[in-house]
Amino acid sequence: MNQFENAMKQLDNASKIINLNSDVHEILKSPERVLTVSIPVKMDNGSTKVFTGFRSQYNNALGPYKGGIRYHWNVSLEEVKALSFWMMVKCATVNIPMGGGKGGIIVNPKELSEGEIERLSRGYIEKIWRDIGSDKDIPAPDVYTTPQIMAWMRDEYEKLVGHSDPGVITGKPIEQGGSEGRGFSTAQGGAYCTRELATKLGLVPSETTVAIQGFGNAGSFMAKILAEMGYKIVAVSDSKGGIKSDDGLDISALTVYKEKTGSVVGFGSTEAISNEEILELAVDILVPAALENVITAENVGNIRAKSIVELANGPTTPEADEILKEKGIIVVPDVLANAGGVTVSYFEWDQNIKGEHWSEVDILEKLEKIIVDAFHEVWETKEKYNIDMRTAAFVKAIERVASKMEI
Ligand code: NAD
Predict the structure, then answer these.
(1) At 219, which CATH number?
(2) Residue 141 Cα, ligand 1 centroid: separation in angstroms?
(3) Is the N or C terminus of the chain more exposed, i.e. has fewer CB atoms within 10 Å?
């Protein structure tokens, strides 16, 4: 099953539970608009190479389409469509006034010079500018796209439309209208979800063990924030391998060590573990924060964590999800656990529209309210229908989108 078929299966499941209006269901089975563009780029050696890019605008019932742009060699139209559907679900789960969108270019950015990436990014905007804008569709960074790329895209867009529109894109550098807190917002949202979950499960932070796979942007900030909240981080990993200490890791010292050596491996008096082993530790909370499809039908039988907080996008395959349900392991799904990122992107857009710049304190206060409210709404939906949290998030999101569409 490809990712889009998988997404449609999730739509069908949620639709059955709420007895969704059949017209709305039919409309939600495809994106409202999909653009496929060819982008000619003058390469440094003088030749011209043509790249293929996509933008999928899934649904804008709740607000302008919103979603990142991915630069990756595996990008495909089906993947971009699925990701735009999941963005619709994510924005609706946390109840922000944004719809679902996603873009991508089939490219290995590691093979391009900085100049070639700039020309590719500007070329993409030249092809899609008529269909984006702060009141239409607001892109953002995703895999292998950066604040610098967002700045080039904004610049190209404003040249083409002939006026300033800083809210056309989020994830910009602070000097370009970016928001305070965007760097750690995904982890911060995940930490609020972890705290609410721990309370529901009757766990006390100082006695709650956490293992985190991935020590990049999402994973390292998650480790730092949870450690500051008093949780015991007993294991972390990155692409080179993992480390474990039953007494808990000193995350500040580990961050300095990782900056110096490039990896967490070999830190202090820790035990070395593999990236497979970290997923199978008997911890209270497991946080996948690296790659997709890491909890699969093959390893799910060995998962001993009491609960999982999905900071990565799509870390659990649908087959593994079914087995986790049977095992009674609670999963806080990605559409809720990592929605802190898109929520602060929405704040960035809001500030740009109003010509304001909010402090980090203000951002955190607003973010906490949105994520905590969403967590409890999803939890109540789970209890009401006796379903898992992922299905509950989809149910809540589809209900919101559908009620707007019906009206
Ligand atoms: P990143 O590139 O900063 O970090 C990725 C981390 O994963 C690195 O520590 C890397 O060493 C590690 N890694 C790579 N291969 C691995 C492997 N085989 N096993 C274990 N670890 C491995 O990326 P990120 O921004 O932290 O994103 C991580 C996940 O979180 C992705 O799924 C992403 O889609 C999701 N996410 C991130 C954000 C955000 O704002 N950064 C928002 C929403 C979702």
Answers:
(1) 3.40.50.720
(2) 13
(3) C
**Among residues 337, 359, 379, which one ends one of the domains?**
337
108 is in an annotated binding site: no
pTM of the model: 0.96
Pocket perturbation via mutation, ligand 1, pick of 274, 291, 292 by most ligand atoms within 8 A of CB:
291
66 is an annotated ligand-binding site residue: yes
For ligand 1, mutation pick of 239, 251, 261, 281 (most atoms within 8 Å of CB): 239
> Would the annotation count 74 as a binding residue?
no
Tens digit of pLDDT per residue, the chain (407 long)? Answer: 688 998 999 999 999 999 999 999 999 999 999 999 999 999 999 999 999 999 999 999 999 999 999 999 999 999 999 999 999 999 999 999 999 999 999 999 999 999 999 999 999 999 999 999 999 999 999 999 999 999 999 999 999 999 999 999 999 999 999 999 999 999 999 999 999 999 999 999 999 999 999 999 999 999 999 999 999 999 999 999 999 999 999 999 999 999 999 999 999 999 999 999 999 999 999 999 998 899 999 999 999 999 999 999 999 999 999 999 999 999 999 999 999 999 999 999 999 999 999 999 999 999 999 999 999 999 999 999 999 999 999 999 999 999 999 99
Query: Is residue 191 in a domain?
Result: yes
| Nearest-angstrom CA–CA distance, 19 and 43 | 53
Please compute Rg for the chain using Cα positions: 21
The token duo for 222 is 């998650």
Verify that 131 and 45 share a domain, yes or no. yes
- C-alpha distances out from residue 1 to 78, 305, 313, 339, Å: 11, 28, 18, 25
Report how far ligand 1's centroid is from the alpha carbon of 291 (Å). Answer: 6
The dihedral region occupied by 95, where left means phi > 0, alpha psi between -120 and 50, and beta the remainder, is: left
Residue in 318, 314, 273 with CA at minimum distance from that of residue 291 = 314
Last residue of a domain, one of 312, 337, 362: 337
Report in angstroms the alpha-carbon separations of 17 from 12, 14, 114, 154, 256.
Answer: 9, 5, 49, 41, 48
